[in-house]
Amino acid sequence: MLQGLFRNGRCAAARKLLNEMQDRGQIPSTRTYCVLLDGLCKKGHISEALSIFHTMESNGLNSHISIYNILIDGLRKNGQFDVSWDLFDKLSFKEMQPDVITYNILIHGLCVEGLLKKAEELLRKMTETGCLPDSVTYNTIVQGCIRRKKCDNAVALLEEMTKKGFSADASTFSMLLHPLYTTGQDPALLKMIQKFVPKENVDVLA
Fold first, then answer.
1. 107 — pLDDT class (breaks 50, 70, 90)
2. How would you write 44-86 as a 3-class SS string?
3. How far apart are CA 144 and CA 175, in angstroms?
4. What percent helix, strand, coil does the chain show, rounded to 5?
């Protein structure tokens, strides 16, 4: 019901429902709080989401990484990337381990900010801590490099992700194709792109 209310933009009704739930002796679970925080963040109510989070923190109810992921992502999407980064930094003090979703959110934020070096450093850090990057991680940072015209970095990362069994997704594939449309059918460029795109898409390049 909470999800449905937020989906329809009825934030006040969702908050009222939560209060009624608590008044009737139903204790909100981690899942309930995830739905609540996610709904508030997506509707731009960041201050309220943070207030609820701090209340949870004081009651020892914020011990799940999914809670942090929702807030870190919500803060980033609402132009508060510095605050989301501070929240990430506090995880180590709480002896909580970020997961691949946490890292993907932050790497995306760093790429949007143009902080590619820091994004690559975070990629290395997550590997060192035992959190292996996935296809989303690599595609995100490769796209960031392409947008900033850091072609050498993009190629090196494409090589790395290919060795790990990952391939360019649809968005990365489209960005790789763009130079062909702007510079023409350069055989060398075509060969390089064919090396990294999924096999099922190779025929599209011909």
1. very high
2. CCHHHHHHHHHHHHHCCCCCCHHHHHHHHHHHHHCCCHHHHHH
3. 10
4. 75, 0, 25
- Report how far residue 95's alpha carbon sits from residue 97's, in angstroms, rounded to the nearest whole number: 7
CA nearest 168: which of 141, 150, 190?
141
Q: pLDDT tens digits for 20-54?
A: 888 888 877 888 888 889 999 988 889 989 988 88
- Would you state the structure tokens that stand for residue 141, as one six-digit string? 């940072």
**Mutual orientation of helices 135-147 and 170-183 as an angle, nearest 10°?**
30
Question: Quick one: tokens of 99?
Answer: 């997961």
- Whole-angstrom distance, CA of residue 22 vs CA of residue 40: 18
CB 145 within 8 A of CB 157: yes
Sequence letter at residue 97: Q
